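S.,

As promised, the flavin-adenine dinucleotide run. Input:
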Amino acid sequence: MKKNNTFSLQEYNTFGVAASTPLFVEIKSILALQEKLKNEAFKDALILGGGSNILFLADLSKPVIKISIPGIRIINETEQIAVVSAGAGVVWHDLVMWCVANNLGGIENLSLIPGLVGAAPIQNIGAYGVELSDVFYDAVCINRKTGESRIFNAEDCDFGYRDSAFKNDLKDAYVVTAVRLALTKKNHNLKTNYGNVKETLAQMGITKPNIEDIAKAVVQIRTSKLPDPKKLGNAGSFFKNPIVPKGECARLLLQYPNLPHYHIDGNFDKIPAGWLIEQAGFKGLKKGKVGMHDKQALVLVNYGTLSGKLLWKHAKLVMEGVEKKFGISLEPEVNLLR
Ligand SMILES: Cc1cc2nc3c(=O)[nH]c(=O)nc-3n(C[C@H](O)[C@H](O)[C@H](O)COP(=O)(O)OP(=O)(O)OC[C@H]3O[C@@H](n4cnc5c(N)ncnc54)[C@H](O)[C@@H]3O)c2cc1C
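Predicted complex:
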């Protein structure tokens, strides 16, 4: 929507906050993207996917390039593996459904994650025991300065927990135009041990699940637990689960024997941020038009404000509360845009 020579981004972020850009373009091909990047005005543009992992804190002074490059196809296959290429503008869940329909296994646990394919490697999306990096083959990217194409393999991407080189050394340096995944054609490696996938399958009366059953179970769990951004603005988990040195975890366990924690490696444990937020008293706590969700303490919810700043103010309050109680600093998973 164009207003007073600026374009409203309210419909382009799942928090539903008000923000605007002086210039908005949607591109549907690599060539169109390369053309745009030649234009000095677009050099520092915000690259936008589905807007489900961003929080606008103010109107943007820079342009926005919305990535809508379509297409899903198999580009290579052996008897066991198919390499599927998906355009950066494909809706992630549509890709999951396409793979499930074609009996290609590996991303069924990532069903119903909002957003587009191009953003998936940026934070190495993950859910229910699977991360993008588990099936990642490579990504086709365009250098924002030169317009040249470069293929990034998993090592180049340096994937970590909700992290990749695209959030660090390569931040704002490349636009992802396609992601390619190596998926199984048979003997799928089914993962049902995480969260309540197994229980949900049992409730569905399924004892020998296939990838479609797992996708259905994950959709059912997510629909019952997570607020639908179309009804209640949010960006999923607002904070990352903190990874702390084992010594610090041991110290906390003395004080909080029920502290949930997961072994990462010989040096670090992961603590669920949702538990910390709940214990600090923020779960379900509504402060005016913002708050943390009552079923998922990790989800910052917009109960009717247009102000991204107000949401961020509440997030900082939660961070302070957790820091004060546990001495742990929470880190936002969501990208803050000023
Ligand atoms: C209800 C809900 C549940 C969620 N659950 C999960 C979950 O289970 N697991 C999980 O990992 N995430 C989850 N998320 C977060 C979000 O869905 C993912 O991070 C998703 O990958 C973001 O995609 P997007 O297209 O909306 O990205 P955007 O929000 O548009 O962009 C996110 C970042 O990526 C950059 N970017 C986007 N596209 C490109 C591109 N083509 N090239 C280069 N940079 C790009 C943007 O500049 C921005 O910095 C959830 C969000 C919501 C709202």
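The first strand starts at residue 2 and ends at 3. The chain has three domains: 2-67, 72-225, 233-337.

- D.
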